[in-house]
Amino acid sequence: MFKKVIALAVTGLASGAVFAQANVTVYGLLDAGYNEVHTDGARTERSIDSSQTAGSRLGFKGSEDLGDGLKAVFVLEYALANDINSTIGSASKWSATATRQAYVGLASDYGTLTLGRLQTAAFTWACSYSPLTGGIFGTDLRLGARTYSDCGNAGRADNAVGYVSPTLAGFTIAANHILRTEGDTANVADDYANQLGVTYLIGGLQVGVIYNQVSRNKVPGSTTRTTDSDIREYGIGATYDLKVVKLFASYANNKVEGFQAESKYQVGTTVPVFQNGLILASYAANSMIGDETDSQIWSVAYNHNLSKRSMLYAGYGLLTNEAKAQRGMGPPANPSINQPAYPLPPLGGNSSIFGLG
Fold first, then answer.
1. Per-residue pLDDT at 19
2. Does the model's pTM come out above 0.85?
């Protein structure tokens, strides 16, 4: 009975915020452009795509003042594939997420508590410490060494609870608890994950750390669950804004129990130019399990603001592989739109992308 009361209460928060209050914001973003992916040993792929540098989306967010400093809050945010005939929530080639985030919660002077599909603390960390992240020029997604520390779909979580503290003396704490296999009757116990992130901001300096622990439970006699290996993942990142230039750096380490750890580091910068332009550059490399299985990637882009809302962009990225590595710059397979994976280069080959929009 107690659980039913909680469920009704949370549902009421969402309906009340939408219908009883005028404090609702409709927001969104549309990104469309052209790109070419060149891969050693394969034909050049050319596309008109959405979500090249930022995920196209349509969102609704709002709050209701409950008194005594307490507010009910909600967010419903869906992906848009604005280069094809699609509905709201349809995934595009570059964005495999239909529902980006959807939650209800409570906010007060003591912090914000949310429940639903969340952009986790690890998502926020991964999106904060590289100038080119989450898009076709991003140096973060293609090199592995991550479970949740991802500025993309892997950094979002279903069946999640989140808490973000108020900022005190420059420090902000974010935490998540995630049920990864909620209600899976084939398992003795559900898999779950816990995250803890801390951010410190003073002047032009921002430093952030993230820790993820994923617990996976093996089922005796199961033919589908063959491992109970836990995952430990941590990262540290920093930015420093000198006004004439902004510097970025990050390091991430991912270890599956019983295996050698994988790691990845990135450095980057943004430089304002002209009156409305911004140059963005980033380099990343990884250290993977096995000899000569590492890769490196560098990207450079230029953004030109036409107004507060409209921007033109162009960029180039190059990924190089060691002798036994095989990674590419194209998007992964997306079955929801019948999109096959782009071809990979041969072992030790290169892959590059050029795009504008």
1. 47
2. yes
